[in-house]
Amino acid sequence: MKKYNVTIVGGGSTWTPGLLKGICNRQNTFPIKKLVMYDINAERQAVIGEFAKVLFKEEYPEIEFSYTNDKKEAFTEDMDFVFCQIRTGGFEMREKDEKIPLSMGIIGQETCGPGGFAYGMRSIRDMVQLIEDVRAVNKNAWILNYTNPAAIVAVALQEIFPDDKRILNICDQPENLLRSYGKLLDMHERDFDPVYFGLNHFGWFTHLYDPEGNDLLPVLRQKILDGGFRPADAEQRDKSWLETYAMVEQMVRDFPDFLPNTYLQYYLYPDKVLDKLNPEFTRTNEVQAGREKRVFEDCIKVAKQGTARGSNVVHNDAHGEFILIVAESIAHNKGDNFIVILKNNGIISNLPDDAMVEVAASITSNGPRPYAVGEIPTFYKGLIESQYAYEKLTVEAYLEGSYAKALQALTLNRTVVSAEKAREVLDALIEANKGYWPKLK
């Protein structure tokens, strides 16, 4: 079996240890010859990198592993896959994304609303540069992109690299939901045949078939209504994530047609969610005090002790597993079914062809082959059209340096609505993002 060369961009991420563990677990089905981690933050990455050395010595000794902050070492002509999970501005800017809108009585969240707008405007620049760096030395490597906000990034990359068919934007949240459904129904998530439509962080499951062709969505809906909803890995989640999953019950009760992505809470119930958010201690602070602290402490402990056995940081998670099984489906031309982000081109027949939609597709070595969705109901169509207009205007604001389009984008967003509030938060975000955004005129 061929062995693959992989570069992980964003090696200092707290999600990287789970990905590294997934690589160990899948060495017989997705064997890797050379693995390089790359991050511009050398200090953060060194903690994960030293942990990785111990992990691989024990579980995958034949892998050629290194980590670097030199793009010439990271991006080479022999790469087969590049896994991207970058966060431009780090937690410092994420905290501003959340706290600036909250200070004005608007939802503060990293991928939704003004926070997502700010993050998207930062991410576009670095993702474009990254792809140009990769393509300068390697035209054929598959670039699997996790970078958020994936919806805005996907629109930008499609606009800038329309002919590059080896960029695939993905998100692990639908996979997290499938795992959670599986726990409720005592099934493995890969045994589901899902039908899904929407935009990234803005979609719905319409059917969930079992291997015999039975639609389990009605059963699952009733279970959620009767007993609520929790993530499959609830014991490893911070408090805010448990609250996020709990909101699914209300969404299903109010809109019972389909099963929603958890992020829809911010758009359907902005006032209710806003009341629960603490402007002084946001999700960023929770992550820093929780997952980030745990991960880095455990990685340092592993490196010091020289063994990863018994480590709490190497549990499997959907984030690490999902990108690997997608890569495996590409590598072996398996045609497995995943929910990914693609240019619409008629997949959802009553949405614009240029929309970057999130749908189920068979993933092959020649790329994704999406399953048609057809027409969607008016309520969902209206929500998606408005959200896509916001995403498209955000990308146009970046590419054209247009203040007017940035203002239009934020005014359209359901977490803002008011043009007056949109202008206020936009001006504050422009000031906070100097050096990251293009100048808006």
TrEMBL record:
Keyword terms, alphabetized: Glycosidase, Hydrolase, Manganese, Metal-binding, NAD
TM region positions: none
CDD domains xrefs: GH4_GlvA_pagL_like
SUPFAM superfamilies: LDH C-terminal domain-like (SSF56327), NAD(P)-binding Rossmann-fold domains (SSF51735)
Glycosyl hydrolase family 4 C-terminal domain residues: 196-416
Pfam families per the UniProt record, alphabetical: Glyco_hydro_4, Glyco_hydro_4C
Cofactor details (free text): Binds 1 NAD(+) per subunit.
Cofactors named for this entry: NAD(+)
Family under the similarity heading: Belongs to the glycosyl hydrolase 4 family.
Entry protein name: 6-phospho-alpha-glucosidase
Native species: Pallidibacillus thermolactis
